[in-house]
UniProtKB/TrEMBL annotation:
Family: Belongs to the cullin family.
Disordered: annotated span: 61-94
Biological processes annotated in GO: G1/S transition of mitotic cell cycle; ubiquitin-dependent protein catabolic process
Protein name listed in UniProt: CDK2-associated and cullin domain-containing protein 1 isoform X2
The Cullin N-terminal domain, residue ranges: 122-254
Compositional bias segments (type: Low complexity): 75-89
Transmembrane spans: none
GO molecular function annotations of the record: protein kinase binding; ubiquitin protein ligase binding
Organism whose genome encodes this protein: Salvelinus namaycush
Domain of life according to the entry: Eukaryota
């Protein structure tokens, strides 16, 4: 009885599961405590041994049923499962090979064809671009920039960068041609205002379009074409809108500049600065007009022409006084002035 109690104590107190299995005899030998006076391992009854062997086999089966084919074992139970690990190693290699083949097959199945691009990805991008180009600042349109960026990213990764770039340029060119046609029938009294609306709306749209196409810009336009997406899109507005109407716009701007407040100063400044940004050489068509809004348009001041500058200022003051702009109260000024 004392031996059985000692055996039970060893069974319950062995927290590290230090035991050895003898598959031939069906007995399990538990290692005693190193501090124990008994140097040899003790055996327990066959009933307990059989039950513990069955529990250990179930434990091994549960721990080895991972979907990745890996065997999770206690460090002290390697002697029990060594035969099982050796027999399962070929199956683990085959499972790893199957995972590699499945990954390759999934990549091929997820490859985007040109038909997929035409039927799925580009229609979504085209719809979003339409919303950005024609939106009214007062209207709220819900657009998922994350989805647009994701579509662009997938198209670039699937080697459709060139096709995407051509479609984008064609889409915006078509839009700008329509804008130019609308300006063509605009009355002269509203032409400056309508041109300013078209330019402002287009530049605002580019602030949204360029960032979502930044992946294409970085890995295709800048790398292969050595250009920038924003510069290309601004050049489209110059070629299809501004250049076609600049000869009509400049005389109207000169007329409005000669008659103060005929056009709002903010509109005048926006149009003149916009034209200079699109094509700086247009400043030579009307230097006096552009110099009023753009610094350093005129040549630098020369000392020998100071008298000419003074005469020009006096002429301007005279014109302003004749047009109803008084010089103000001159009573408190000294007679010499």
């Amino acid at each position: 009885m004392e031996d059985m109690e000692d055996d039970c104590f060893l069974l319950n107190d062995d927290y590290n599961h230090n035991y050895c299995a003898n598959s031939a005899s069906g007995q399990v030998l538990y290692l005693g405590n190193e501090l124990s006076d008994v140097p040899q391992p003790r055996s327990i009854s066959p009933v307990l041994a059989t039950r513990d062997v069955a529990a250990q086999e179930n434990h091994s089966k549960v721990c080895s049923s991972s979907s990745s084919g890996l065997k999770f074992m206690d460090s002290d139970s390697s002697s029990v499962n060594s035969d099982t690990s050796e027999t399962d190693s070929p199956s683990s290699a085959s499972i790893a090979g199957k995972l590699t083949l499945n990954s390759a097959s999934k990549f091929l199945m997820n490859a985007m064809t040109e038909e997929d691009y035409r039927t799925t990805y580009w229609p979504n991008l085209e719809k979003a671009i339409d919303h950005l180009l024609i939106q009214n600042p007062m209207d709220h349109i819900s657009i998922s920039y994350e989805q647009i960026y994701s579509c662009v990213y997938k198209c670039v990764c699937q080697q459709h960068s060139e096709l995407l770039y051509k479609d984008l340029m064609l889409k915006i060119t078509t839009h700008l041609r329509q804008v130019s046609s609308d300006l063509q029938i605009s009355p002269p009294g509203n032409f400056i205002e309508n041109f300013n609306i078209a330019l402002t709306r287009y530049t605002d749209a580019l602030q949204c379009i360029v960032p979502v196409f930044i992946y294409m810009n970085k890995f295709y336009i800048e790398t292969k074409l050595n250009r920038d997406l924003r510069e290309d899109l601004m050049k489209l507005f110059t070629d299809h809108v501004a250049e076609k109407h600049v000869n009509t716009l400049i005389p109207l701007l000169l007329e409005a500049h000669s008659m103060p407040f005929q056009v709002r100063p903010s509109t005048m400044a926006s149009v003149v600065k916009g034209l200079y940004t699109l094509w700086p050489d247009w400043a030579h068509l009307a230097p006096a007009l552009f110099s009023g809004f753009i610094p350093q348009i005129n040549p630098p001041t020369v000392e020998s022409q100071l008298s000419d500058y003074a005469a020009r200022d006096q002429k301007l003051q005279m014109e302003l006084s004749l047009n109803g702009f008084p010089r103000g109260d001159q009573s408190r000024k000294r007679a010499s002035e």
